[in-house]
Specification:
2 domains; 13 strands; Rossmann fold; seven-stranded parallel sheet; about 375 residues; alpha/beta; elongated; single chain; about 45% helix
Length: about 375
């Protein structure tokens, strides 16, 4: 049995793939411990780790010298704390999943000569991962074409992005090809920011469709709590059947039941859509320095699995036109569903676990290990 220290920023996008790997390593008989930041309280109760450690971390801001200095002091303190943790833990390898909270413990592992793997969920190597990649023994990528990854000499493997067990279960459901005159199920979801934009754009886009098409629609849409009343009224006036909620705990099942999805293009969303194999209109969240969501959507579009729509140019009229074209040509949806499934990697967690074990085994043979 080996011991692995998993390191992830305390948000779902970083913690969920770490959680999937922890489950798989546990099934293989290994021990797992998690090193993260204080935000883990939202998810830590579900994380299958022998122990969960919180290390001080900060995001450096070059624009503000005082904040930069404070962040540097916090990071230095985090490295010192992580050194003590890792000496006691004595892991065979560490695995980082991105976010600046990974920086102190991953750097500490490098100083101790512990082999390390970085996993990148997006089509752009994140800034924290770029800063750490020079210290890594392995890079595990979600996409073959990952921007900035070729700048580093670490061993590479395209593993895909691990998804939850409920996603893999939903992937067993075949695509429900739309029938002539039959019900059309449209799913709309995004994070809090994404949900707000979709609440503004999607209802009027659907209201502009011809009546015969509107009557066939069954819309499921995620909304912020404060938007539920106005969105409900918009759909009532358009006479469209809709189910609205702030959160859907069974989202993978709803994805599987959908003919078309409108969503953001975060790493987890794209991974789940492609593993389940459903066509989507992907609207990247604007404002990201690295435009990682746009890069994710571009790869899906290039594969024929999705259609990229920039929020800056998206309007109810343009979205309505696109929805009419797609919903009235079922063959395009079926082809995109097949392309999405071909792009997805349902076995990503096994691939990642295999790669992590290889790195641990290979580097354990070093003279100074």
């Amino acid at each position: 049995m080996s011991t692995f220290a998993l390191m992830a920023g305390g948000t779902g996008g970083h913690l969920f793939p770490a959680l999937a790997l922890a489950q798989e390593l546990g099934r293989r008989g290994h021990a797992v411990e998690l090193i993260t930041d204080k935000r883990v309280t939202q998810y830590g109760g579900e994380f299958p780790a022998r122990a969960i450690h919180v290390v001080p971390a900060a995001t450096p801001s070059i624009r503000n010298p005082l904040k930069f200095l404070r962040a540097g002091m916090t990071i230095t303190g985090g490295v010192g704390k992580a050194l003590g943790m890792l000496r006691r833990m004595r892991p065979d390898a560490v695995v980082g999943f991105g976010g600046y909270p990974v920086f102190p413990p991953f750097l500490a592992a490098s100083l101790l000569g512990i082999p390390g793997v970085l996993h990148e969920q997006n089509a752009v190597l994140g800034r924290a991962n770029r800063a750490l990649a020079r210290f890594a023994d392995g890079l595990a990528l979600t996409f073959e074409d990952t921007r900035h990854a070729d700048k580093f000499s670490a061993a590479r493997a395209v593993t895909g992005n691990p998804v939850r067990d409920m996603v893999r279960a939903a992937a067993d459901m075949p695509y429900p090809t739309p029938t002539q005159g039959g019900e059309i199920r449209l799913l709309v979801f995004g994070g809090s920011q994404g949900a707000r934009a979709f609440s503004d754009i999607v209802p009027p886009a659907l209201a502009g469709l011809d009546e015969a098409l509107r009557r066939r629609l069954l819309v499921t849409q995620q909304c912020r709590p404060e938007d539920l009343d106005r969105v409900t009224e918009a759909y009532r006036q358009a006479r469209i059947n809709v189910e609205l909620a702030a959160f859907f705990p069974d989202l993978p099942s709803r994805i599987a039941q959908s003919h078309l999805v409108v969503s953001r293009s975060g790493a987890s969303s794209v991974a789940e859509l492609t593993v389940i194999g459903r066509p989507a209109i992907l609207v990247p969240l604007p404002g990201s320095l690295d435009q990682d969501q746009r890069a994710n959507a571009a790869i899906a579009e290039k594969a024929g699995a999705a259609w990229l729509a920039d929020e800056a140019t998206l309007s109810p009229q343009s979205l309505g036109t696109q929805l009419h074209e797609l919903l009235t040509t079922p063959r395009r949806l079926t082809d995109a569903a097949e392309a999405a499934r071909a792009l997805g990697r349902a076995d990503a967690v096994e691939r990642l676990a295999d790669f992590v074990e290889r790195i641990a085994d290979k580097t354990s043979e070093r003279p100074n290990s």
